[in-house]
Amino acid sequence: MENFNFCIPTNIMFGRGQISQLKGAVEKCGTKILLVYGGQSIKKNGLYDQVKKQLEGLEFYELSGVEANPKIGSVRTGIEICRKEGVEVLLAVGGGSVIDCTKAIAAGVYYEGDAWEMIISHAEVKEALPIVAVSTLAATGSEADAGAVICNPETGEKLSLFSPLLFPKCAILDPENTYTVPAKQTAAGSFDILSHLMEQYFVPASTFLSDLLVESVMKTVIHYAPIAIREPENYEARAQLMWAGTIADNATLCNGNQLVSFSCHGIEHDLSGSFNTTHGEGLAILTPNWMRYVLSDQTKGRFAHFARAVWGVEATDDLQAAKEGITALENFIHTLYLPTTFTELGIDDSRFEELAAHAVEKEDLEYAYVPLNKEDVVAILKACL
Q1: Strands 147-152, 157-162: parallel, antiparallel or unpaired by DSSP?
Q2: What 3-state class would DSSP assign to 51?
Q3: Is the CB of residue 87 less than 8 Å from the CB of residue 60?
């Protein structure tokens, strides 16, 4: 078991009606607020009005229009508002993209140069505005982790920003706020959760405890995602997915494992950065193809363990069990009605060489579970067509 430091400083308020605690949570951080959100969905489902009611008596400004795969332009606009108005606390209301954008704003306010320079140079975040998050989507887990991913449409890059200072101070998680999430987004978000779990599971060494924890959350997603798609207002399904997403990517489950770079996320970041693909859809296409590519005599034992523990595969031969596990994952992807090829997304192989080179350079894929070079990534991408 590896050494680790573990601190999740986010105060999580989970369940129905927790929006009633928003004002108190915000006031602990400041009284001049920048409210960050995406499109019209929170206005259509009434959440925007609930938030405004909670902010009565406080001074707040708004940054709307944050897109999926959040863009550096929104970050720059948010930084400008914060500096001009003397904002003291950021309030993110939305999914992972909104929260990620808010984190980059929080760090960028105190950075002397351009926000993209801060991200691409991996500048140390020495100070950040406090963040309160109201999550509306079960997916990235950004509401309780220290990371953010930002896109630059001008360069086609999608890069990460990390700092313990970017943990939200408080996260309000009401599963009812996910009722109106469309089936497509529910499916993509659910696979993003599953992918986070698999990225921490396929590692050189893991512990008995972490395996059981990760496997149990995988099974939870596999069980409840189809239910949430069929019955969008099933509270239990939405609640199980929301909590699974929160704990899937902040080391709660995998402490003690020998962690490595995320293989499929590292490759997919370049796809969504260049083609604006939905992150979970890209992962659903990549993951089975990555699995088949890295399956070998050295890795078959781990893949067989995954197949038996998560999918109930009974084959005694490890290689056969591993292959059946990958097939089971593909069958699950079909039940979510997610795409299974890049062709379905209108992506061809014209930029694979460029994307592969960038992924290897920027995502540390040489330190992945199975180290990947440019040729490896190109081969995986071509298998996805």
Answers
A1: antiparallel
A2: helix
A3: no
| pTM, 2 dp | 0.96
In which residue are the tokens 């003397």 written? 86
What tokens were used for 127? Answer: 């100070």
**DSSP label of 134:** E
What distance in Å separates the CA atoms of residue 12 and residue 8, rounded to the nearest whole number? 10
Task: Enumerate the H helices of the chain as residue ranges.
Answer: 22-27, 41-44, 47-54, 72-85, 96-108, 115-120, 183-201, 208-230, 235-247, 263-275, 279-294, 300-311, 318-335, 352-362, 374-383
Residue 306 structure tokens:
């995954």
In one-letter notation, the amino acid at residue 375 is: E
Nearest Cα to 149, choosing from 119, 170, 123?
A: 119
End-to-end CA distance of the chain: 39
Q: What is the pLDDT along the chain (385 residues), one digit of tens a residue?
A: 999 999 999 999 999 999 999 999 999 999 999 999 998 899 999 999 999 999 999 999 999 999 999 999 999 999 999 999 999 999 999 999 999 999 999 999 999 999 999 999 999 999 999 999 999 999 999 999 999 999 999 999 999 999 999 999 999 999 999 999 999 999 999 999 999 999 999 999 999 999 999 999 999 999 999 999 999 999 999 999 999 999 999 999 999 999 999 999 999 998 999 999 999 999 999 999 999 999 999 999 999 999 999 999 999 999 999 999 999 999 999 999 999 999 999 999 999 999 999 999 999 999 999 999 999 999 999 999 9
Q: How far is CA 132 from CA 44, 51, 55, 88, in A?
A: 22, 12, 13, 11
Among 278, 208, 254, CA closest to 67: 278
What's the CA gap between 372 and 285, in Å, rounded?
Answer: 18
261 torsion bin: left (phi>0), alpha (psi -120 to 50), beta (else): beta
Q: Are 71 and 151 in contact (CB under 8 A)?
A: yes
Q: How far apart are CA 168 and CA 106, in angstroms?
A: 10
Bridge partners for 159 per DSSP:
150
Residue recorded with tokens 């949570």? 25
